[in-house]
Amino acid sequence: MTAIALPFLFKLPTSFEARLALEDIIRIPASLEEYLEFAEKAEYKVEYSEGQIVSMGQATDAHELICGNIAWAFNSLFSEDDNFRLYGSNLGVYIPETNAHYKPDATILSDLPEFILQKVRKRTLKSVLNPLALIEVFSDGTIDYDLTEKLPNYKQCASLRYVIFIHQHKPYVSLHIRSNEASPWFTVDCIGSDASFQFEGKTVLLKNIYRKVIFMGADLSGKRKKKA
Predict the structure, then answer these.
(1) Which pairing describes strands 133-137 and 26-29: parallel, antiparallel, or unpaired?
(2) In whole angstroms, how far apart are CA 76 and each of 86, 148, 207?
(3) Which has the closest alpha carbon to 69: 218, 222, 206, 198?
(4) Res. 220 pLDDT band, cuts 50 70 90
(5) Which of 48, 70, 171, 184 could be joined to 35 by an S-S link, Cβ 3.0–4.6 Å?
(6) Cα–Cα distance between 102 and 159 in angstroms, integer?
């Protein structure tokens, strides 16, 4: 999909129903304060990146199912760890180093949240500053935005150790992991429903991430289905 460049005076609708009538990615130049004020009114998710309000299209059924599976899989593994906290996309993550504000599909903390308080008119909004891991579920329209814009900004977050990208059309998870060695980040790709990856000493199974997800034209092994 191609992003739509719109002048600042263009008014994004605040209702979810009205936003559905607009196609593609919408980006509008704005200040962080203007973004926060609009985000409080909008019935759908918007982010602030590279000095612009960014509005994406509607999430698919597979996207929502995977997000639910992520919460179930990780919370099951860390049910005995009182410091482990997993949040959904309503939690804002602020990155001071790049003045960006994102709402990942899932945010994982390994300690009490550190919040920044941001004033919007008479309200005070809270955004977290200390994520351990950020998880994004790829869609056709967001993959370029996630990889080329959000990922470099995410890597500027001092507390962050994992960025996890999950494909929704095939069993494929890509992890970006912070290292203490000369190369600060390295990538691990996990492909196939039988694959797994390590996260904080726990094994995460892809079959749990993709539980009940039906891939178009393929079974969970990634092989093409034969025509009847």
Answers:
(1) unpaired
(2) 11, 32, 14
(3) 206
(4) very low
(5) 48
(6) 15
